[in-house]
Design a protein that fits this description.
Layout (H helix, E strand, L loop, with lengths): L1 H20 L35 H7 L2 H7 L5 E2 L12 H13 L4 E7 L6 H21 L7 E7 L10 H7 L1 E8 L1
Length: 183
């Protein structure tokens, strides 16, 4: 038994020695935080700005549809006195402005609509609306707009601007208005 004890003791000693010879892992301290290094300055190179070509007023106009142009109402309507078709003094500057616009757009063709208030018969109002549209066209011709660029139509009392039944509504309905039909 002595031999067994000596053997066990030497084995234990050998194992202790081997365990103590095992490499110890050194703990490496974390690296110090990086010092603020100056980054090389990179100049910002802005991408060249691509400018859209500047369109002329005529090019902008040509890109629009007839519906878009008519919604903008570039041509103002004029109004008439009761049972009259002569151009009133207050309509002259409006027609002059309309003529300037038409001269600036020489390819445009328009429809001049003559309208009346609800009073009178349908036949009478259709005839009066036609005389109003024709008087308007003749005035524009006198301002230098070729008659070939204009057509007339009468709607009589069928398309009131104001559905009321009083003088204020009737005054709005006695009118000539413009519709661009070709550009």
């Amino acid at each position: 038994m002595k031999k067994f004890l000596v053997f066990s003791l030497s084995l234990l000693l050998a194992l202790t020695f081997i365990a103590s010879c095992k490499k110890k892992v050194k703990e490496v301290p974390p690296p110090p935080p990086p010092q603020a290094q100056e980054q090389p300055k990179v100049e910002k190179v802005e991408a060249p700005v691509v400018k859209e070509p500047v369109l002329t007023e005529e090019e902008i106009f040509q890109k629009k549809t007839l519906e878009e142009i008519n919604q903008e109402k570039p041509l103002a309507m004029i109004f008439f006195d009761y049972d009259k078709y002569n151009i009133r003094p207050d309509a002259v500057p409006v027609l002059e402005t309309n003529a300037q616009w038409l001269k600036a757009h020489p390819t445009v063709k328009i429809l001049i609509e003559g309208h009346c208030d609800e009073r009178g018969t349908e036949e009478y109002n259709l005839a009066l609306g036609e005389r109003r549209a024709k008087a308007t066209m003749e005035y524009l011709v006198s301002l230098g707009i070729p008659a070939e660029r204009m057509k007339i139509i009468s709607y009589g009392k069928s398309q009131p601007l104001d559905p009321g039944h009083d003088e204020a509504a009737w005054a709005k309905n006695r009118r000539a208005q413009f519709l661009i039909i070709e550009k």
